[in-house]
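Order emerges. As here.
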Amino acid sequence: MLLGVEAQPWKWLKIQAQGGPDFRSYEPDTASHASPLNSHHPVTYYGESLVSASLTSKDTLTFKYKQWQFVSSCGKVPYFDSSYDLSCVHKFNAQWSVDAGAKVLGADYTCGNLGASSLRNDYDFAFAVGAHYALNSHVNFDLGYNADLGRNEQDNIANAQTRNFDRHMVTLGALLKF
């Protein structure tokens, strides 16, 4: 059940947002099964939005937000997944463009009740820049750099630094359309 709005208060600004309750249902506890939450029918929050501003005919600034509850990849506990994304694109001309962005991704597993498996509160701070060249409508080239900085934000765990990581990636791509 979501409530949403789309608006364009000015020609250069577009807003899209939706949010509302997220109804969940978990199997009751039995001798062979423990529910990952104390409440078997929790109501959580779901929300997402996009705000796009065409600052000039060549510059666009975009902000995206999303938060929802999801089941972890190990399938044991749910977690709150949050993302905040800010990016900008500048077009020099019809062929050349550059972009830059920053994103914060959060994975908060602390809503679960399964003890040590619920002790996670992780963040990924991502930064990216790229250059793009369109030779024609059939051939495009891309060069990019991404940095992902993973950080643990959970208190009172042993060896918390072992959950941190840094990843740097340079990409070079070509797209051929037929």
Q: What stands out?
A: The first strand starts at residue 3 and ends at 10. The mean pLDDT is 88.
